[in-house]
């Protein structure tokens, strides 16, 4: 009779261990989803600001049609991109074109002094900071999830319940290192 109690206790402990690890995975997966949602909210905010910025610049920089078209195309590509890797590449391109746009604005003193332009520039900068913060939060959750999926003994539960590793949302630092190109 005593052996039955020991076996039942071991089974209960093992089940409790499986439930605890499973719930830990569920918590990490939901945190990762929440973090990705935060990134998408900030990117949507940025996408909404860009047309206003372009309209403001158009009034002053009529000769910069190519730059404005590139920003518009990069925005559309970023909005329509799918997976995390593709989204990261599209966001790199959009960031690069925005840098070029702001560099072009340096040639138009009236534009630089325009209150609407300054407000849009400030809001975009604020949004960029929020995207970076949301990206760090997302990547931190992905790191925790991936570590738990790869670590023993939680990897047994991960494979049993088919939890998958997530991709990091990475922005290529190479693009940030390139100087802004302005051509006329």
Features:
mainly alpha, 184 residues, disordered C terminus, rod-shaped, 7 helices
Concise synopsis of the structure shown:
The chain has helices at 2-60, 65-80, 84-105, 109-113, 115-150, 154-160, 173-177. It has 184 residues and is mainly alpha-helical.
Plain-language structure description:
- This protein has 184 residues and is mainly α.
- Helices cover 82% and strands 0% of the residues.
- Helix 1 runs antiparallel to helix 2, helix 1 (2-60) packs antiparallel against helix 5 and helix 2 packs antiparallel against helix 3 (84-105).
- The chain is rod-shaped.
Low-confidence region ranges: 179-184
Q: Report the strand count.
A: 0
Order of helices and strands: HHHHHHH
Largest sheet: none
**Mean pLDDT, all residues:** 86
Assign the structural class, choosing from mainly alpha, mainly beta, alpha/beta, alpha+beta, or little secondary structure. Answer: mainly alpha
Computed over alpha carbons, the radius of gyration is 24 Å
**Separation of the first and last Cα atoms:** 90 Å
Residue share in β-strands: under 5%
Q: How many DSSP helices? A: 7
Can you tell me the overall shape? rod-shaped
The amount of helix comes to over 70%
Which helices and strands, and how do they pair?
Layout: H1 2-60, H2 65-80, H3 84-105, H4 109-113, H5 115-150, H6 154-160, H7 173-177
């Amino acid at each position: 009779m005593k052996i039955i109690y020991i076996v039942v206790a071991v089974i209960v402990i093992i089940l409790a261990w499986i439930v605890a690890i499973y719930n830990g995975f569920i918590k990490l997966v939901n945190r990762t989803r929440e973090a990705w949602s935060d990134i998408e909210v900030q990117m949507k905010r940025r996408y909404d600001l860009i047309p206003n910025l372009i309209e403001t610049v158009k009034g002053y920089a009529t000769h910069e049609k190519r730059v404005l078209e590139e920003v518009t195309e990069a925005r559309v590509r970023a909005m329509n991109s799918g997976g995390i890797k593709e989204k990261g590449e599209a966001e790199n391109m959009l960031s690069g074109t925005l840098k070029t746009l702001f560099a072009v604005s340096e040639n138009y003193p009236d534009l630089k002094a325009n209150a609407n332009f300054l407000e849009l520039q400030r809001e975009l900068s604020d949004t960029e900071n929020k995207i970076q913060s949301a990206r760090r939060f997302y990547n931190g959750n992905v790191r925790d999830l991936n570590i738990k999926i790869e670590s023993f003994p939680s990897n047994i539960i991960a494979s049993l319940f088919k939890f998958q590793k997530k991709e990091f949302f990475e922005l290529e630092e190479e693009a940030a290192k390139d100087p802004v190109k302005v051509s006329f």
